[in-house]
Structures are given as structure tokens and as C-alpha cells.
Amino acid sequence: MADVPFLSRLRSHEFVALLVGSIFIIFEGALHIIILFLPKSVINWFYLKSRALFHYFVGADTSTPEATRFAHCIRKANDFEDLCALFGYHNVEEHVVLTKDGYLLGIFRIPGPRNEPPPVPGTSTGKPVVYLHHGLLMNSEVWVCVTDPERSVPFVLAELGYDVWLGNNRGNKYSKKSIHHDPSSSKFWNFSIDDFAWHDIPDSIEYILQITRAPSLSYVGFSQGTAQAFAALSIHPQLNQKVNVFIALAPAMRPKGLSAPLVDGLMKASPTLLFLIFGRRAILSSALMWQNILYPPIFCRLIDASLVFLFSWYSHNITSTQKLAAYSHLYSFASTKSVVHWFQIMRSGRFVMYDDDMYTPTLRPSKHNPRPGYRPATFPTRNIATSIVILYGDVDSLVDIDAMRHELPKHHLDIRCLSGYEHLDVLWGKNVHVDVIPHVTRVLREHCENPELIRTDVNGVSAKATLHPDATWGARSAHGCENGGTSGYATPSDT
């Protein structure tokens, strides 16, 4: 049989996956074009019919009208500042960090409690500084799209007296600009975890410390936000002096793989197959289209089904109203290359840097030749000098805690297990104010600069207790959620 370039490198199951993926991409693209030309009246008709069918087969929402209305307000919020305003935080600052390789990163600051007069923007408050970073395919909104402020890490920390900063990766909603490349160019999207570690994390931290004039800050990461910190701290020794503690929520370093055997096996066999399916720019950018045209509870059901299929996450700890509020803020732009990088890590079983030689490693490891070809460079995570505290769920399929114990320095590593928690539960679980946030606040107090400036309670209520937004922070009634939204769910014209 003749050797055909490109095609001869694919195996039979890769042909099948490529064919199915291509059909789906073509169908989705055609649907996108059709929707662009359809009048709003037609789209609204399909939307209302889908809502009627959903209620007929599934039943009406059993949540209280107030809870549903407020979740709807959160779902409709346009950006980070709108979300914070729903809870009374009108003191939010937006900053722009220029990385050493030319990307412009949007980062946000909550300089203090809701009722405290805001400082002059861009000046030091003298408070202990905390930096929070999101996960893969996310942005900083995931920290604040909660239905109760007591379950938001940045809101609780701001009320306790911390100077809270929230970062964003290059390419996402708030960082889609570079001084060198246009976002429509594939060169703009040519980045992976390596670039987050070499530039985004250290450059953001350096900027924050310059503004706050603090000698160090505390880092709280979620999912890939922890991997970026593990990588950055391992390759920048001087960065360890600027981070007084690293709290890793649902950490990701060496995931074993996906729960869907076909997808997991295929991507591990040939991670770069993703380039053939999704191209070399942003991955899953069409998610925003589906989010806008589907009835919100149906969109939530699709997300739930996808999480079960890919990761075996059943999200029992996340309420239906929280899903309605948060799932519309779950996705943000990310490069296909960064996802390919994760499958390279899963395939190699090591926390490796991106492997640019995409064809040589197609030789599979075997019993007699466990390391065929060559070895991509590994992030030297045992060199991390910063104190590390890990909070992970015992039913989180992406956390391999034994691998982390082996790869991280043991003398300043503290690991806490959260019983019954999955991955997203650590962000949006109904009891994070009891199971997660008290651990975070205690650790921060032990390691932060000037801990004497930190309060032990929020508005007279212990940080370990429940804070009802109506009674304590007045978020819903004071900021016109009822006036800004509508009863029930919005139609596509409202989104």
C-alpha cells in the first residue's frame, strides 16, 4: 500500500474519531450560519417550544421563585464587575498586565469589604494580599458566580480584610489581546501550560506586588490554576520568595485520564489529534452559541451529561440553582494547544513541559522499552520552596494524590481530603462555606503578611458560620436583582 502523507500516520480508530469529529464540526458550523440568518421570532419560537417540552418531560423547577430569580440574575451578568455588583461590591478595580512575551492580561482586584470606602485605584492598602487563579477553559468569574456570598472565597476574604486579586489566563474573555498577534491568528493561540508558567503567573504576581508594595502574597489556585503555580514555582526559584503560601484547591498535576475509555484511549494514543478536530486556535468556541440558544435548564443538563461522560462527576453537591447561575460562566476561551498539553501529560504519566515534536512520541511505551524516543522536560516540582496546602475531593477523578505526594517536597506539604467532594464541588458545592473556606482562611492567617490586620469574623458573624445574603450582606434586595431581571428564565433575546 502506498505511503500517503498524513493519512498513513493515522490508525483505524483515529480515522473513525476524525470522521465523527469532522461531521460534528461541519454540522455545528452549518447550524451556526443558519442561526445567524434566522429572525429572532423564529429562534424564540424554538426556544419556547423547547422550554415547554422540558417542563412536560422533566417537570417545573421546584426552587423558590426568589432563588430562581437571583440565579437568573447571576446567569445574565455580563462580566466580573456585574457579578460583584449583584453582591454590593462596587469597589472592583480592573488592571492590565503586559507579559514579557507581549500578551495583555486582564486581572481584577477587590480591595476590601463591601461597605468600606474604596482606596485610590492602583494604590497600596497595606492589607495582606491574596491572588486567586481559575482553571482550564475558565476565567475569574467562576469565583464569584455563586448564589450565596458566604460560598465565594474572594468575597469572604475581602470581608475579612484581605486585598483580593483574581487573575486570567491569556486568550480567555479578559485577556484576548497581544501586542504581537491578532486573536484571529493561529500564532496568538500558540501557547500551553509552559507559557502560563513562564509568563502569566510570575508576571501577574510581580505586577500585583508592585501595586500593593507587599513583600509577598498568598496564592489560591483551582484545578489548572494549581498546575500553573506548581510549574511556575518549580522553574522560577525567586518566585518562591514572593509567595508565602500556596493553597491548591482540587489540584491538577498528573491526571490519570478521562472516564470515557474511547476518548481517553484515543487522546492518549495521539494527543495532537485534537488539532485535526478543533484546529490550532481556540477550542470549543461554539460553546457560547449553544449557551445562548438553548433553554438554560437544558444547557445545564447537557453540561451535567458531559461531566458524567468525561469525568464521572455527578455534581450531587451542587444545587440546581447554583448550576443555573454558574454554568453560563463556566466556559471561556482557551487554546487547543493547552488541552493537547494535558493529554501529553496523561499519556506520559509525568508533569512534563509541552512536547513540540508531535510525531516522534507516537511510539507507545512498552514493558521492554518504557521510554521510547526521548523524554520531554519535566517540571522540577520537588524544587518548590513555598509552603503548599492541598484540598482535594476523595471522588475527584482528576486528582492523583499519590502522584502528588511523590512529586512534591514533603517537608512543607499539607494535604487535606474532602469527603464526598468532586472537582467542581470545591468551587460551587452547597457546603463549601463549612468544608472548604474555613480551611482556606485559617491557612492564610497562618502564613500571610500582617495577620493582625485580618478580622476573625464577617460583619459580626463567624467566618465558619452561614452568612445569608439577605440578612447579612443585603445583596439581593439592595442591588435590584428584581428590577434588573425578570421572573423565571430569559428568552434568547434577553441573553
From TrEMBL:
Membrane topology field: Single-pass membrane protein
Region annotated Disordered, chain positions: 476-495
Localisation per UniProt entry: Membrane
Transmembrane segments: 15-38
Location, primary (coarse class): membrane
GO CC annotation, single: membrane
Partial AB-hydrolase lipase domain sequence ranges: 81-145
Molecular-function GO term, any one: hydrolase activity
Protein's UniProt keywords contain Transmembrane: yes
Name assigned to this protein: Triacylglycerol lipase
